[in-house]
Specification:
Helices cover 74% and strands 0% of the residues. It has 332 residues and is mainly α. It is globular and about 65 Å long. The two termini are 14 Å apart.
Length: 332
């Protein structure tokens, strides 16, 4: 549900934010669940994702399952909750960043990073007037910066997750959070029309392909890279399209059929729980948007603290809210 909202507002790094939100909610769940319940909840999440968003890629479902498995390991003991929450959040966020790097490497090979290094050094050499100048590896800088951003987000998420139970306890007596009538409140989120969208149809994909084509044209006419680089770049682009073609026409459909068979079996078992959870989405949107509006009086960290705390309290305990407390801990 939150993913749809973030996509609607076109928030950058949507995947990273979703991983962070999942880490916070899973950490809170770990305080109330017994062994195996988090993994069970992850399966229910996957069932819901398949139901309401059938075009979600398999990698997203795998990420949810992996988060559930990691949570079962990190929260085996509740004695050191804050430390466990921090380590879990950092691990989830860093893996999210590394996953994108691995996909690009599998898709384009080492030629991609080699090309980035070559052209970055050509540009820098021309700026300094020394064509033999080689300063740094631009690809390592890009990869390190991307992973570092996810690491930093993981530390922030882990800090929030570790302190969230205390924030909730300190605000449980706040009547303004407990007695709110949402029956006439209209949450006007941007409408998001879900449809299957290949990466090359996305704006970022088109920009990336344009850069690759410019690199091919530049290497063909420029003496420094030479025509050998032109051939390597062309091979890299052809290779990526062959891999994508095989993935979307052969591998992905086959894996999805197997995946759907497994999910359909589980869906019958959890159908009552999934229906209950899906039915709460409209009210959850109202609660989230209501608190987003109210949080505008805060700034920075204080706004995040207020938004997360008030939204969770209203969702779980509000006397006129959706009464999620009627569901079991796995549904939570």
């Amino acid at each position: 549900m939150i993913g749809g909202i973030l996509h609607g507002f076109k928030v950058p790094l949507t995947g990273a934010w979703l991983s962070g939100i999942a880490a916070i909610l899973i950490s809170l769940m770990s305080l109330f669940s017994t062994r195996g319940e988090i993994l069970k909840a992850s399966i229910i999440v996957i069932i819901i994702k398949v139901t309401i968003s059938p075009y979600t890629p398999l990698t997203a479902h795998f990420a949810v399952f992996l988060q559930g498995c990691l949570a079962e390991v990190f929260f085996l003991s509740k004695r050191f909750f804050k430390v466990s929450a921090l380590l879990f959040a950092v691990t989830v966020m860093v893996l999210s960043g590394i996953q994108r790097i691995l996909i690009l490497t599998i898709l384009f090979g080492n030629t991609l990073w080699k090309s980035i290094d070559t052209y970055a050094n050509i540009i820098i050499s021309e700026l300094f007037g020394n064509r033999n100048l080689k300063i740094f590896s631009a690809s390592i800088v890009i990869i390190s910066a991307y992973v570092f951003i996810h690491l930093l987000m993981g530390l922030i998420v882990g800090f929030i997750a570790g302190r969230l139970p205390l924030w909730i306890n300190n605000n449980m007596s706040n009547k303004s959070l407990m007695d709110v009538d949402f029956s006439e409140y209209d949450a006007k989120f941007p409408e998001v029309k879900r449809k299957k969208k290949r990466w090359w149809n996305k704006k970022s994909g088109r920009v990336f392909l344009s850069i690759l084509l410019l690199m091919v044209i530049y290497s063909y006419f420029h003496p420094e890279p030479g025509q050998s680089y032109t051939i390597e770049l062309i091979i890299m682009i052809v290779r990526s399209f062959v891999i994508l073609f095989l993935w979307f026409t052969l591998v992905s459909p086959l894996l999805y059929k197997v995946f759907r068979k497994l999910i359909d079996k589980k869906q019958i078992r959890y159908i009552s729980q999934t229906d209950k959870i899906i039915s709460t989405f409209p009210e959850l949107k109202k609660i989230l948007f209501f608190n987003w509006k109210r949080s505008q009086g805060f700034k920075g960290y204080s706004r995040i603290k207020f938004l997360v705390t008030s939204t969770l309290i209203m969702a779980m305990f509000s006397t006129r809210g959706i009464k999620i407390s009627e569901l079991n801990s796995t549904s939570l």
